[in-house]
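re: that complex we talked abt at group meeting.

here r the seqs, copy pasted straight from the sheet so there may be weird spacing, ignore it
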Amino acid sequence: MHGLLNWILWLPIIGMVVLLCLPKGKDQAVRVTALVTTLLTFLLTLVLYMNFDTTIPGMQEQFSIKYQWIKFFNIHYSLGVDGISLPMIILTGLLFFICILSSWTITKYVKAYFALLLMLESSVFGVFMALDFFLFYVYWEVMLLPMFFLIGIWGGENREYAAIKFFLYTFFGSIVMLVGIIALYYATGKGVDSFNILALQGGHFVENTISVFGSTFSFERIFFWAMFLGFAIKVPSFPFHTWLPHAHVQAPTAVSVILAGVLLKMGTYGFLRIAFPIFPSAAVEYSTVIAILGVVSVLYGAFCAMAQADVKKLVAYSSVSHMGFVMLGLASMTTAGMNGAVLQMFNHGTSTAMMFLMIGVLYERSHHRWIVRPDGTKGYGGLYAHMPKYTTIFIIGMFASLGLPGLSGFISEALIFLGIFKKFTTITVIAVLGLLIGAAYLLWMFKRMFFGEAVEEVKSYTDMNAREIFYMIPLCVAVIVFGIYPSPLLNMMKESVGSLVSLLGSFQ
Amino acid sequence: MLEQLLSHLGFYIPEVLLIILMCSLLFIEAGYGSREKGRVMVYYAAFAGLFLTAIMLCLNFGHDSMYLFSNAIVIDKFGTLAKLIMVVGTAATFIISLMVTDFERELKPEFLIMGVGVLIGGMLLVSANNFLTLYLGIETLSILSYVMASFKRSDSRSSEAGIKYLLYGGVTAGIMLFGLSHLYGVIGSIQFTEVFTVLKTVEGTKLASVLAGFLLFFVGIGYKISCFPFHMWTPDVYEGSPISVTTFFSIVPKIAGLSALIRITSIFFASNNELSEFWVLFIHLIAVATMTVGNVSAIKQVSMKRMLAFSSIGHVGFMLLGIVVIDTVGYGAILFYLLTYVFMTLVAFYITAILEDYYGTDTMASFKGLVKKHPWLAIIMSCTLFSLAGMPPFSGFVAKFNLLSAIIDKGYFSLAFIAAINSVIALYYYVMVTKYMILGDVEFSEKAKTVNFNNQLIISFLFFPIVFLGIFWEKVYTLAQNATIFLP
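got the structure back, here u go
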């Protein structure tokens, strides 16, 4: 099993190189190459899961790989996996496979599109596996390049603006984080482990101070916020969410799925892996602020979603709202809340991916996404009668998204509320309202799109074809199975989350 | 005495070689008249000469640091590395001038001759060990540059560039001389070694006039590296000059000026606390102002050359951060930055030059839809721009990382945050070019011209280090860190 992480990380790149070497005009071969690559990668992540020992909390103990990269700075190429990153890795593998299938109809620069998707997959794996802070940063940044081009070239009408806004926002967050990374390196005395994320964890920086613009601050607080900014922009938490609706609306379907399904999780993953364990006392101190930002995201995202006339924008804002729940779970710093947060990261990944994919399927037929057109007329209406299969799958995704008991969203949200209730009672009560509004905007959207009199053009839509149903099946299964029986996921993350909670607990 | 001088000459071979090269280029050109064969011969000779010089410089790495010619010149690893980067940059600019038609072919040999002359001046400046040699270096560097700026005789902007460069250069050189005379008046010597000894104990009113002297001296250097507030000439000269000359200007004088500034700082300002505090504060302010002014002004530029000019000002501001730390780590980081910057500049200007050749303009308009006309150029150009902005996995990121880590090590956090914000501004205008090249939907009426294979090959060669140094940078970085300055 040694080297498995390397294979998962580099297989997409190998696939990308093969794909780029294919002769011109062989679009079908390009698609198949990408599909096979992502399928193999996904299978490898499953192999990783089978061989994963859930009783080990640490990230360094299993499958870890470590080579020296830059001796001068003690930078290592070092990878590892634990109970928090494993669900994310599996989710990444699954979603990229599905995205390749859903992008079958792309005809513009086919080769470049699939090459960039594969490059993106590799860098996302890199973020979830990196144990070295420098390596983490490199992957964190490299990911922006394919994303920028994927939105900017294959996106909608206003894609250039959306791509640049996304790029600049994220770059701003990460360069501030870079200052923090370097500061940590010197704060630990440039030792062998100064870029080692795990060695930095545990709150070694409580006593340090720094001076910025002439005044002295606590090292821990300043850099907790520096890291927080980088991750919060990625999540995105209110008030750093403004890039998200643009990016989502303009991005092609597959890229929206990746963006909502995986990339947003990198932000919360950053909290779990870096901001919280490295600066535990600041995290505990500011947990109220995080909770408030979380609850504002929940409500603000939900209200914004309700006001949207564009269904994709609606789902984009619902992502802001659902990621707010993850923030709440993180702020609770209790076992239940943290587990709920990681579970919600996974479950939101599957349910929101379903929603975006379904919207993509509809868009391919209608070429618009209006629930209500700007002139006030209906965009769809009566879809249920003309697309029964579509409606069935859409219902599953929608109810998972609004947290219906029995589907996956419910369990994670329940766990989060369970964990946070004692610590922030008022905030919990307000946040529950978010669920209500969530149900309201989703059901209202459903009513307007699927029921009622059908618009003339709806009658000509064909129902989902075999390929489309095929790639929705794994997500439907995940949503239903983990809604009834979430134990495999919870077992996977239990130990790792537990050790983080006990670390934070010792600073409370 | 003569024997000693002759033995010193052994360590001065690279410069001597260049002088011989310059003279022989003159003779070759004169001998062949204006025939095509002569031009080719001049190019062959120039490449051979530069290659030999580079080898000699590599050999010099093995020697210990030493003073030559009665302390007028110092040979050390730092200077040798800086010279090597300059020679590589010069050779690459010569290739660009061979490949593009930015000015009359008849003048190309003259560009080479003067280029080698400027290179000699730059090398003199890098290894100067007294104020007189330093001044001599700057003047040799400048006087030939004035002529080079106005090579494009048919274009009035080129002549304007030459005159502008000349006027600015004349005034700043005068101010610099004035400052140097001040220093001589107070200290009583022009030898760096002696000045160093005196400076250790200087205080009171003497300190004030020494400071005034150094500030006036900085005017001359600041003009050469185009830092705020002496940067105003840069966009006009960069835009007006033929593009191979512009590329040359953004490489050789910059490296030479920065190296001289580093040498001065490390010799004089590491010993006297009061003096060094003031100097650090001064460079601090200059660095912040330079990068902010450069980056902010670059945003609204339409001409690619002007944008690169302003962005080069931003980069100089960034490099000055390495001087603030007054530490070899910072100087090493600057050398590494210079090396990567040379390649990024070369690629960016080369591609601009090709497009200017094809479409007659260097405005953003000629970049519109580039990916459809010349996909390879568009990809390389956008990667280079991302590298300039400091995105991994390209070498520009590593260079920025090293500089940031040098200043954070000394606890200059506010400076680090300002630099970070500047990087975001820089990314904005670089990304805008990428937007024009790749994202926009453009329909063309005319058929795209094919880029000649040699051009693509050379660009790919120049691009290779940008990627390579972004991943395997340890060896080169260690080399830059070990290139120490010979301190008295």
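couple things i noticed - The interface with chain B takes residues 69-73, 137-138, 141-142, 144-145, 148-149, 152-153, 159-160, 163-164, 167-168, 171-172, 175-176, 178-179, 182-183, 185-186, 210-214, 222 of chain A (CB under 8 Å). The mean pLDDT of chain A is 88.
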